[in-house]
Amino acid sequence: MPHRAFFAFIMPSLAAMLLFIALPIVSVAVQSLYVQHERVVTEVETCTPFSGCTKETRVDAEATEKLRNDEPLGRFNGFGTYLDRNHLAVTEIGAILSDNAGFKDTVARVYNLPFYRALAFTLTYTFVVTPFAMLLGFCIALGVNAIPPFYKGPVIFFSLLPMIVTPLVGALIVYWMASSQGILGATLQVLLNDPTLSLKSSAVLTWITLLVYGIWHNAPFSFVVFYAGLQTVPHDTLESAMIDGASRWERIRFVVIPHLMPLATFVGLVQLMDNFRVFEPIVGFSAEANATSLSWSIFNDLRGQVDQLFGSAAATSMLTIVGVIILLSPVLVRTWRDFNRR
Amino acid sequence: MMVTKRRQPLPLAVLSTGFVLLWVFMAAFPFIWTVWGSFKVEQDFFSRDSWWFAIEGTRTIARTGSAFTGDGYYGAWVLRDFFSSVINTVIVTVSVVVVSLTFGTLGGYALARSGYRYTFWLLMLALVFRAMPHITLVSGYLLPFFEMNIWGYMPTAIIVLVAINQPFTLWMLHSFFLSIPKDLDESAMVDGCSRFQAFRLVVIPVMWPGVITTGLFSFLLAYNDFAVTAMLLSQPNQTMVPKIASFLGTVQQEGNVMFAVAAVVSATAPLFVLVLFFQRQIVSGLTAGAVKG
Question: Does B126 touch chain A (CB under 8 A)?
Answer without folding.
Answer: yes
